[in-house]
Amino acid sequence: MKLNELSPAKGSKRSRQRVGRGVASGWGKTAGRGSKGQGARSGGGVRPGYEGGQMPIHRRLPKRGFTNIFKKNFAVINIRDLSRFENGATVDEVALVKSGLVKGAYDGIKLLGQGDIDFPLQIKVSAISKSAQEKIVAAGGTVEVL
Predict the structure, then answer these.
(1) Dihedral angle, C-alpha 38, 42, 47, 53, nearest 10 °
(2) Which residue ranges form the domains of the chain, and what is each CATH number?
(3) Could you report the per-residue pLDDT of 23-71, keeping only the tens digit for each?
(4) CB 95 within 8 A of CB 89
């Protein structure tokens, strides 16, 4: 099968209803827009969430919680993910991005302790859990928190 041979399932696609094509079509004259008013006009209609002047639902419902605008967004990796590095390698942000473990923009990298490691590594990350640090040191590696 080739890309140019792909087609949607039979009956899954319908052509759009062409309106305003004469009275006999059943969609002529006002073409389903009703008579006069904002919705009948070209370019008319109301913005999303508008409820005709009634207090909108997003304003009627109570607000809760707090959003910290200074929150740090960490990329989270586990010890089990470090098996792809060689014995004695330096694992820092550049190495993690290059290996594909970290993708996207983050404020830092946090290493968590899920999994095991049996060879030493030099770890340089923004944050590390206590269990992860213990496992790295027990394997003969070093940890540096940036």
Answers:
(1) -10
(2) 74-145 (3.100.10.10)
(3) 999 999 999 999 999 999 999 999 999 999 999 999 999 999 999 999 9
(4) yes
